[in-house]
Amino acid sequence: LPPPQGIRFRGYSIPECQKKLPKAAGGEEPLPEGLFWLLVTGEIPTQEQVTWLSREWAKRAALPSHVVTMLDNFPTNLHPMSQLSAAVTALNSESKFARAYAEGIHRAKYWEFVYEDAMDLIAKLPCVAAKIYRNLYREGSGIGAIDPNLDWSHNFTNMLGYTDPQFIELMRLYLTIHSDHEGGNVSAHTSHLVGSALSDPYLAFAAAMNGLAGPLHGLANQEVLLWLTDLQKELGQEVSDEKLRDFIWNTLNSGRV
After folding, report:
1. How much of the chain, in percent, has pLDDT values that exceed 70?
2. Which residues cross the membrane (predicted)?
3. In CATH, which superfamily holds the domain spanning 62-145+181-213?
């Protein structure tokens, strides 16, 4: 993350990724499958390689019934991040690495089973997130079936219940530029730390999500939205620079930040 240039993925800037990575048919934004391939291999993938990855994730996406049941039984006042973390922890029942380790696999082959778990987890995360969203904000309506002919982001937006092409394109870009975290922040560091104990990828990722849920990390997005809502309630739609400055200083001087 060089300050003068901004974030780079394997040496490529975000505009370069937008230009070089494969896109969906008729789309303008890169597919996150392409960035995943770039991060793992260091190479820009072909359209065929990205299509294979989309179909591979679609094939691995189904959730075990006990995870669906658990999500359906959570109270509506349980924060979505808590639900996500719990669901990912429960997916540990599907860990190929944990099973292979218990069977005494040689450590030289650990990476193969970690890779399989990581692929399965990436495939299942949209289903978990969409299930939580539907339960909390769409009266528990079903997420529908995965379409193996659609890309990862398109399937996710369908499961959420949004079919606007602009929203689908936005989701592709959003998931692409959020696909890489270095080791310094709370969530990435936590996943590395927990994984170093040979905890499987499900447990390591769940731990990372608990770190991400903190207000000085991922929850900051929610905090900003709440702050903007409070600002609008107190000051209305038309706000002068002076009133906005006073509101900001009142927030800072309150000791809450």
Report:
1. 98
2. none
3. Citrate Synthase, domain 1 (1.10.580.10)
